[in-house]
Design goal:
The complex is a heterodimer of chains A (87) and B (307). Chain A is 43% helix and 15% strand. Chain A has 87 residues and is α+β, with helices and mostly antiparallel strands. Chain A has one domain. With 307 residues, chain B is of the alpha/beta class. Chain B is built from 13 helices and 11 strands. The N and C termini of chain B lie far apart (47 Å). The chains are: A alpha+beta (87), B alpha/beta (307). The interface between A and B is medium-sized, with 20 and 28 residues. Strand 3 of chain A pairs antiparallel with strand 2 of chain B.
Chain lengths: 87, 307
Amino acid sequence: MQKKPVHKRHVVIKMSDLNKMFKENDVIPIPKGFVKDIAYMLSVHGVSLEELNKEMVSVDESETESEVVADIGSEVKVQITETSFED
Amino acid sequence: MSFDKIIGQEKVKSKLSFYLEGQHKTLLSPHLLFVAPRGSGKTLLAQTYASQLLNSEGKKRKLITINCSTLTSLKAFINDVCIPYVSGKEVTILFDEASEIPSNIRMAMLTILNPNKENKNEFTYDDVTIEFDYKKVTFLFATTEAHKIFHALIDRLERIDLEEYSNEDLGMIVQKNINSLISSEAMKEVKQVLRGNARKATQMANHISLYLGSYDKKSFDIKDWHDFQSKLGINPLGLNPMEIKILKVLRERPLTTLTNLSAKTQMSRQSLQRDAESYLQKLNLMEILATGRKITHHGRQYLESLK
């Protein structure tokens, strides 16, 4: 597995390497502190983490998950315009 | 984009050209704060400046413009702006409406923009550390309300105050945005109603083009102006109906309090002070004394001329 350090406490891992480990329908546990970031990144691709979790989260954990989802819903997207200038 | 295409603001353009020359040789540009009233072209100037900043390969850098009223948290700033657009990239970031930057991001910017010999800083949030190398990243800010920006942040920026546009500049802006000819007599009238505002000049040019287009005309003369003025309800000096109402209320008494003016116009005190009174005072149509508001002789003459 190729790893390349980018920040003091981060490494990057190639998706192609991860794909060797996982199959299409595998479920990956994600630290709760990182859920909002993942949900936001997925929403850009039209995927809702809320829908995924309805199917996968067990009943005794659903209360906590719905709090996170409510929090996700309150995120306001930053309005950014990217401009490239031709040479 | 170059400054040649921007009308007026000669001192500002000269200063910015000087910074650009330096940036092309050293890759370092000061972080700039553009301050001017609404519609003065501060965003256009900032974008034109950004369009000429180079990266280490001598190519033009990308510009990322952020509408600060949508920038709600430091986390969003780090995750949505810094990680995707700044980390390891060469870029210019423009904070438009910079007075809206939330206080925690303002504080982060103090660290990010803290001047030092190395011309770079690191900022850590949660477990992410981002390097801000001024040879790779330049921050620009644009605002109408510089007083709302934290003084320590202003100290870290080079302030660029735009000059007031002369009527000649505004006339040139109108002419530049119209393909048809405007007679000098008509232009004289047009300039009087632009309220010293470059954006209004561009809007006026668009309206005149629309007028000429709809009547299939190639030029705009004084007769056209009178017809155009009555169709669009343009008042002398470009005053809006609310400003005229304020003058009429002031004419009723020797002195009027702000509370009374607010009651009669049904505008809030803040709105009166911010949106209406300043232009009327600028034109010397009303004055504010310690005891109240008062219409001037010039203001009375203006109302007479409307009859």
